[in-house]
Write a structure and sequence with these properties.
Strand 4 and strand 5 form a beta hairpin. By secondary structure, this protein is α/β, with parallel strands linked by helices. It folds into three domains: 206 residues, FAD/NAD(P)-binding domain (3-Layer(bba) Sandwich); 111 residues, 3-Layer(bba) Sandwich (FAD/NAD(P)-binding domain), CATH 3.50.50; 100 residues, FAD/NAD-linked reductase, C-terminal dimerisation domain (Enolase-like, domain 1). Helix 1 packs parallel to helix 9, helix 3 packs antiparallel against helix 4 and helix 3 packs across helix 6. Helix content is 33%, strand content 23%.
Length: 451
């Protein structure tokens, strides 16, 4: 069939961060684009992920800021926290952002179908309404969804999706998982006054991060009153007559919680997409396998973002969507996204930020490395009377003085890391940092004062 005989040049399934970018850019290149979203435009990040979560993180920080204000001369009487007010304000802003995403697509003449879409044949998509559409190219950008392990009573548990819509802050909350979602929500709920317990199948939190950072976060979290139960699995969760949850974990007695939240990772969102109808190849965990240019084993079907077998981060999905649209519909030579040296952050209390190799990875890969470290107490914490300490760590290849990793925990670490990540990505050396004048007094100056 000639390309002009298809209804659209591109049909995007899933209008999250990656899908929006790909659809907009493809349309800007002159393609006829349609996209389908069964829930809300914006995807996980905007609707039920990093954006509303960061708003809750901001809200949670005021708990300590208001307490610390006394040491800075401020007397604040009658302070109180209203969860419902914050929740509703956050959701209103989410709706505003959703509208902006919709306007962006509309302004680029992207046809949007607010219903489920399934691949039903060669170059063919069928909508939930029964409408059949054809397209030269199909892009799958449906993201990922929370993983819910199998155990008795898991239907009584929530995931991060539901955490944004709770009627009240739970007095006692059990969070299952040791990754970034578990630790971020542990910090949020703890600052809002919950008694928080983290239950993890292993004895390690934030496995992908440098051990020095995760050990420091564990220490600080314990000091803040967060409890950790390691090497446990759920036996059952039973709802009691008063609405509380009776929980039994291995090697533990039964305990009662008001809420149980499962944060044990995310899995590719592929259910009902009809991938089997065209023979799209999947990985062991259901991820769509793609090449460097986001192409699946089916020549005209591509996939970007968390539904693939690459890095599950919103900025990565956006870059992949951009590269796909430029490469397939743009005038220039196709290009691939560089997935190396990607910075990341955990918006815990305090936050963690990282780029490049951990110390262990560097030693295994490079052999001879130099490690520079600053273990300090931020000035604000000193004045406020808080013992909480920050930790910055720099990993350097001894053979050429290049910085191969920077790892930080402390206030505003993600904000500082964005600039540091540019330096690491560019291959700057420790000498380049040493030659840079510090901005004093700041926490960031520690990066150029490491000796």
């Amino acid at each position: 069939m000639d390309d002009t005989a298809y209804d659209f040049d591109l049909f995007t399934i899933g209008i999250g961060s990656g899908g929006v970018r790909a659809s907009r850019v493809a349309a800007a290149h002159g393609a006829r684009v349609a996209a389908a979203e069964e829930y809300r435009v914006g995807g996980t990040c905007v609707i039920r992920g990093c954006v509303p979560k960061k708003m809750l993180v901001y809200g949670a920080h005021f708990a300590e800021d208001l307490e610390d204000a006394k040491q800075f001369g401020w007397d604040i009487e009658g302070k109180s926290f209203d969860w419902v007010r914050l929740r509703d304000i956050v959701q209103r802003d989410v709706t505003r952002l959703e509208g902006l995403y919709g306007e962006t697509l509309s302004n680029h003449n992207v046809t949007v179908f607010e219903e489920r879409a399934e691949i039903t044949g060669d170059h063919e998509i069928t909508l939930a309404s029964g409408k059949v559409i054809t397209a030269t190219y199909i892009l799958i950008a449906t993201g990922a969804k929370p993983h819910m392990p199998e155990f008795e009573g898991n239907e009584h548990c929530i995931t991060s999706n539901e955490a944004f819509h709770l009627e009240e802050v739970p007095k006692r909350v059990l969070i299952a998982g040791g990754g970034y979602i578990a630790n971020e929500f542990a910090g949020i709920f703890n600052e809002f006054g919950s008694k928080v317990t983290i239950a993890n199948r292993s004895d390690v939190i934030l496995r992908a991060y440098d051990p020095a950072l995760r050990d420091r976060l564990l220490q600080i979290s314990l000091t803040k009153g967060i409890e950790f139960c390691f090497n446990v699995e759920f036996e059952y969760v039973r709802k009691q007559e008063d609405g509380t949850l009776l929980v039994k974990m291995t090697n533990h007695e039964e305990r009662v919680y008001d809420q149980v939240m499962i944060a044990t990772g995310r899995v590719p969102n592929i259910d009902g997409l009809g991938l089997e109808n065209v023979g799209i190849e999947l990985g062991r965990k259901g991820e769509i396998k793609v090449d460097a240019y986001s192409k699946t084993n089916i020549d005209y079907i591509y996939a970007v973002g968390d539904v693939t077998d690459r890095v599950q981060l919103t900025p990565v999905a956006i870059r992949e969507g951009q590269a796909f649209a430029d490469s397939v519909f743009g005038p220039d030579k196709p290009y691939a996204v560089d997935h190396s040296c990607i910075p990341s952050a955990v918006f815990s209390h305090p936050p963690i930020a990282s780029v490049g190799m951990t110390e262990g990875e560097a030693r295994n890969s490079l052999g001879n490395v130099r490690v520079f470290q600053s273990d300090f107490r931020p000035m604000k914490n000193v004045v406020a009377g808080r013992s909480e300490r920050g930790l910055y760590k720099m990993i350097v290849d001894a053979a050429n003085d290049k910085i191969v990793g920077v790892h930080m925990i402390g206030p505003e670490s993600p904000e500082i890391m964005q600039a540091a990540a540019v330096a690491v990505k560019a291959g700057l050396t420790k000498a380049d940092f040493d030659a840079t004048t510090a901005i004093h007094p700041t926490m960031a100056e520690e990066l150029v004062l490491l000796r």
